[in-house]
């Protein structure tokens, strides 16, 4: 591979080292960090070289994620719901940069997850884990084969009360089942992934509240119900020793319901007997109904925003592989076609609420806000998207030391939006995007233990239905909730150059085995899509726009050493992420913003300004030691550099500080079939921030003109705090 491809196996996802999938990926892979926008351990964002795969609707995505050959970025917003993946059933994970063959959204790379089946896993295993903040989780997996038939099943359930104040508890239930059959030429599998998860969310909290109480929250309830039914059939067949076929067909049913208690832009009108929103616009209950009377006394005003996305998607891939020698040289050709189609029904509403001054809980009043000019009105939208791809890649061995890989993929995307309310024609649109993305690279084996690689590729991502429906700065949306208009957005095109060296040293027990890698990367993205804060300055409102060119470049270095009872690793990544175009962006609540004649806060971004939310430095190290044949102890260090606050486009406010966390783990093999294990995360109980942003200060408006609730908060910075010290212990039994 002419790139720095990383691979993890099922052993890397053992609960001996971490409590969840993303922590396992973050633990050892260079270039990866985790950020958090929801305050939920099951719903974090994976950042790789400054591109993300996030479960949060409205986050511009840059990584394609596959499960058993199916792209699982959801049709509606390209989000990745990590909580759907049955972690015990994972057999292998590959992180691949610099390859457009993985289709749309792979502008920063692709994460390919291969699941277990009865041919690759035999036996029965049960596991129970418990610990801090009410965490209780268990799993069972079983697999086996008889003659040419196999079966595998995994079931997982987890509960976590959450460490933040009030309700951010989570219930996760998921399963994976695979039935397979094979003979000498053909292998066929049908597998099913199901999930029913209720996740509590906690948004960023004002820094002044965190200084008083680390676990405090700023308005609630916030929760997300996620459900999945995913069926996939895979087929592979060898026509001969050199020709083979691989294919799959799938159906994916996805449901999401989100409830979010927030502040509101609703306030008493000039005539305090009625309520207004925005610049004096009356709040209507029913569409075209009378202005809402103000009967709320001195209650502080908020709102409960709700949305629901229901998506049915289906499609498949057909691929041919050939390994015939060409001109007497080894050659490997892969060619294929894929089609993915999605149908989404999206609904949203906003209910006027009142805020309890004691705990900031928002209670609905039964009045639903309907004011399109202020960006809030009920939404009922039908979106369809069809993505077609044709690809070919060829690896040719020029010599026994030098191999060249070349190919490309043509992507054609059709995205249509249809308003179902009959009142918002601006949402109706038909969008078409197409592009051919090439890839070329080579590897050269300098010595048997040293290989050089270099490659160039292009990739594209099209605007999602969510982004297309919220791209008008004059009509900003409640991100993750409301859509109001669709001025055109351009597709993002990335150009990536990558080069480096990798190798190993030592082959026996006397010297140990050292593997290492050193590389550099540079990705220039044209027409990058970013999320911009609403000019209105209201928390959680925003829109999407193309931001010209952006650049993410840096270096990666890694070491892994195994000797006798020792196993140690270390890696470092530097990411320099900058804007490359001069643009003017709305930046409300930013104390360093300029103010236009119309009162809009904005900043002038110049080439070289750092992209907010992307830490420049990432360092990880760890060691494991087998004290005895049965007892193992280990430690991991994770250091993440400072980053600019979200929406601090010109880098003038103080950064989110750098942080370091040390985790400990141990395991003991009681018998051949029983093992106990324990973990301590953040062993020194460090207080650190995972991300930060600006928010609207001034507190919450009273319906009766009473002093504003929380008006004493004057610092416009809000942060998502990291989890304090947490300890877990568990037991695993194999049969």
UniProtKB/TrEMBL annotation:
What residue ranges carry the coiled-coil annotation?
none
Query: What region holds the TonB-dependent receptor-like beta-barrel domain?
Result: 183-683
According to the UniProt entry, its GO molecular function terms are: siderophore uptake transmembrane transporter activity
The record's section on Gene3D superfamilies has:
TonB-dependent receptor, beta-barrel domain, TonB-dependent receptor, plug domain
Supply the alphabetized keyword list.
Cell outer membrane, Membrane, Receptor, TonB box, Transmembrane, Transmembrane beta strand, Transport
Superkingdom per UniProt:
Bacteria
Record GO biological process: siderophore transmembrane transport
The principal localisation class reads membrane
**UniProt-recorded name of the protein:** TonB-dependent receptor
Native source species = Bradyrhizobium uaiense
């Amino acid at each position: 591979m002419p790139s720095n491809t990383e691979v993890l196996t099922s052993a890397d996802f053992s609960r001996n080292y971490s409590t969840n999938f993303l922590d396992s990926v973050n633990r050892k892979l260079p270039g990866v960090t985790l950020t958090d926008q929801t305050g939920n351990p099951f719903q974090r964002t994976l950042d790789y070289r400054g591109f993300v795969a996030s479960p949060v609707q409205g986050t511009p995505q840059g990584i394609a994620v596959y499960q058993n050959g199916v792209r699982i970025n959801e049709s509606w917003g390209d989000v990745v719901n990590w909580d759907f993946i049955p972690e015990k059933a994972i057999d292998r994970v590959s992180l691949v940069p610099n390859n457009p063959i993985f289709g749309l959204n792979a502008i920063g790379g692709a994460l390919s997850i291969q699941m277990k089946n009865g041919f690759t896993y035999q036996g029965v295993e049960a596991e129970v884990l418990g610990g801090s903040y009410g965490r209780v989780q268990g799993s069972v997996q079983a697999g086996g084969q008889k003659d040419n038939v196999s079966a595998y099943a995994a079931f997982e359930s987890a509960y976590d009360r959450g460490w933040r104040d009030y309700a951010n508890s989570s219930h996760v239930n998921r399963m994976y089942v695979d039935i397979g059959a094979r003979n000498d030429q053909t292998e066929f599998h049908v597998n099913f992934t199901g999930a029913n998860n209720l996740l509590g969310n906690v948004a960023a909290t004002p820094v002044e509240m965190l200084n008083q109480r680390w676990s405090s929250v700023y308005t609630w309830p916030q929760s997300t119900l996620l459900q999945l039914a995913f069926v996939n059939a895979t087929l592979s067949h060898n026509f001969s020793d050199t020709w083979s076929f691989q294919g799959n067909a799938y159906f994916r049913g996805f449901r999401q319901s989100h409830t979010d208690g927030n502040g509101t832009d609703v306030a008493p009108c000039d005539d305090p007997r009625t309520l207004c929103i925005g610049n004096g616009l009356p709040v209507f209950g029913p569409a075209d109904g009378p202005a809402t009377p103000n009967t709320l006394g001195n209650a502080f005003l908020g709102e409960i925003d709700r949305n629901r996305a229901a998506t049915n998607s289906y499609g498949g891939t057909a691929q041919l592989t050939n390994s015939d020698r060409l001109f007497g040289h080894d050659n490997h050709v892969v060619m294929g076609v894929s089609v993915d189609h999605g149908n989404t029904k999206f609904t949203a509403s906003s209910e006027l609420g009142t805020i309890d001054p004691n705990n900031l809980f928002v209670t609905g009043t039964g009045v639903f806000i309907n004011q399109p000019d202020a960006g809030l009105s009920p939404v009922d939208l039908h979106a369809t998207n069809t993505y077609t791809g044709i690809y070919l890649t060829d690896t040719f061995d020029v010599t026994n030391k030098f191999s060249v890989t070349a190919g490309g993929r043509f992507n054609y995307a059709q995205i249509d939006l249809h308003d179902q309310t009959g009142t918002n024609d601006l949402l109706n649109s038909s969008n078409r995007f197409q592009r051919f993305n090439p890839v070329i690279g080579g590897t050269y084996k300098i010595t048997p233990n040293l290989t050089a690689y270099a490659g160039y590729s292009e990739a594209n991502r099209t605007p999602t239905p969510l982004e297309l429906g919220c791209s008008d700065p004059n009509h900003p949306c409640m991100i993750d909730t409301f859509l109001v208009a669709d001025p055109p957005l351009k597709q993002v095109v990335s150009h990536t150059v990558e080069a480096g060296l990798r190798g190993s040293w030592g082959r026996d027990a006397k010297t140990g085995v050292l593997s290492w890698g050193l590389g550099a990367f540079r990705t220039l993205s044209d027409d990058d899509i970013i999320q911009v804060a609403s000019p209105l300055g209201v928390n959680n409102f925003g829109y999407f726009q193309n931001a010209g060119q952006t650049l993410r470049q840096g270096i990666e270095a890694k070491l892994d050493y195994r000797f006798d009872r020792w196993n140690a690793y270390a890696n470092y990544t530097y990411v320099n992420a900058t804007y490359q175009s001069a643009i003017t962006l709305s930046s409300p609540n930013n104390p360093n913003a300029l103010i236009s004649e119309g009162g809009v806060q904005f900043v002038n971004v110049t080439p070289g300004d750092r992209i907010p939310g992307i830490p420049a430095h990432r360092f990880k190290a760890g060691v494991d030691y087998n004290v005895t044949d049965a007892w193992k102890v280990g430690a991991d260090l994770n250091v993440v550099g400072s980053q600019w606050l979200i929406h601090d486009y010109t880098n003038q406010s103080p950064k989110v500080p750098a942080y370091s966390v040390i985790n400990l783990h141990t395991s003991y093999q009681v018998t051949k079939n029983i093992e106990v294990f324990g973990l301590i995360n953040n062993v020194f109980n460090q207080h650190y921030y995972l991300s930060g942003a600006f928010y609207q200060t001034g507190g919450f408006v009273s319906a009766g003109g009473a002093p504003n609730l929380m008006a004493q908060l004057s610092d416009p910075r809000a942060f998502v705090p990291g989890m304090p010290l947490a300890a877990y212990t568990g037991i695993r039994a194999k049969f």
